[in-house]
Each structure stands twice: as C-alpha cells, then as structure tokens.
Amino acid sequence: MSKVLLAGESWVSDVTDHKGFDPFPHTQVHIGCEKLLEVLRNNGHEVTHLKSHDVSTDFPFSIDELNEYAVVILSDVGANSLLLPPQVFEEGKKTPNRLKVIRDWVRQGGGLLMAGGYLSFQGFQAKANYAGTPVEEALPVSIFHWDDRVETPEGAKPQLSATAHTITEDLDEYWPDLLGYQLLTPKDGSEVLATINDDPLLITTDFGEGRSVAFASDISPHWAPEEFMAWNGYGKLFNNIINWLS
C-alpha cells in the first residue's frame, strides 16, 4: 500500500465563555480528518497527518523529502501556510517555494489530491488563495480568483458521470448529500468522474509523469455530514483515489 502525507484538516479554537461577571478563556485543537485517517489506515495505507498549525514549519521543502510519500493530500490549509514558514515571515530569509516544489514533484511522478473546504482551492473570502499558483498548474481544474464556495445547506446529491474509471468502479450512482462545495472549472484533458448540481465534484488528470485529483467538497464536516462519512462508499472512494494516485 501507499505512504500518504495529509496536510491540514485541523484547527485551533480560541474561545472565551462568559459566566456572569467572569470570563473563562480556553483553547482546543480539533481534528477534522479522523474518519479519513481511519479508513485509509484500515485499507493498509501508512498516513502521516501534518496538522494545519505545523504545516508552515514541517511540510517538506524539497522533492527528495516529498519522495518519501506516494501521495500528498492538501485539505483545508491555505497557500500562506506553505509560502510563509518562520524563516521567511519572522526572519526575512529565503526558502524554497513549496508550491513550486509540490508542482515539480507531481510532474516527476507524485500523486496529489486537493480536497475542498474553507481553506482549499480559493476558499472562504478567497483566503486559501491557490488560484494562479504552481499548485493550480498541477491540478485538473482552474480556480477562480474569488470566493469559490457554493453553500448547499439544504443538501445536494452527488452523481456519477458517464465516465468509467477505476476510482468510481462499484460506487453507487448517487451518493449521500453534501452541504457545500467549490465551484471549479475542469481543464482540457481532465476527466469529470462525479458531479453535484451539474457542477464538477470529482476530477482527475495526468500531469507529466504524475497524477492529480480534485475533490471539490469536504472530507469532513461541515460540508461532509455524518451521513456521507457513514456511507459505505466513503472509504472505498478515498481508498480508490489513493490507489490511483500512487
């Protein structure tokens, strides 16, 4: 099976509760990808999870370091976390541009998955900011330069396209509802394997010697509700994506 690096899918909440006269501040780290880690590891993959607040310091800076992995997943972590390590932001020193490193690693044979969320693709208020970057070059989609979210709180049902592919083999034609997604434009030569509201949801492409996948919705709440993650196709879908990318 494959060695996988999953970057992102965590956040830190800084909350102050007010109990009458007295405030009570507290913080908590939340891990959004626990279910995905479980299903990938149960399928034999060796997954390293790099929490969002560790990405700026610990994400690989070179192709050689990335070559430790067959697949990289970027999920809900913005471009700034890769562009602004402490050496740059605090010390004013040069470092490799990790967006270029990711692109070049995919071109040389790596597998990249970007999953949707508020800090994926362009994201909430365009803060993820991958549009126009080297990572976008490696993806099967073009990214808008503005907030690209489509919120569907009423639920929207994904549907397989007519394109046969090993990733979607044996999956249901219709999937449980999702509560939002990114609006993306498939590039020429890419394949759209599933749609949502007639918009592309699951898109693949070859890039040089490597491969990439865009999944336009979330792998965890809130866009991926419990019904989606409990669906028997959830683990099969993401296991198939990893197998195809590697």
Automatic annotation (TrEMBL):
Superkingdom as given in the UniProt entry: Bacteria
CDD domains reported in the protein's UniProt record: A4_beta-galactosidase_middle_domain
Positions of the Putative glutamine amidotransferase domain: 3-245
Xref: SUPFAM superfamilies: Class I glutamine amidotransferase-like
UniProt cross-references to InterPro entries, sorted A to Z: Class_I_gatase-like, GATase1-like
Stated name of the protein: Putative glutamine amidotransferase domain-containing protein
One Pfam family cited in the UniProt record for this chain: GATase1_like
Signal peptide span: none
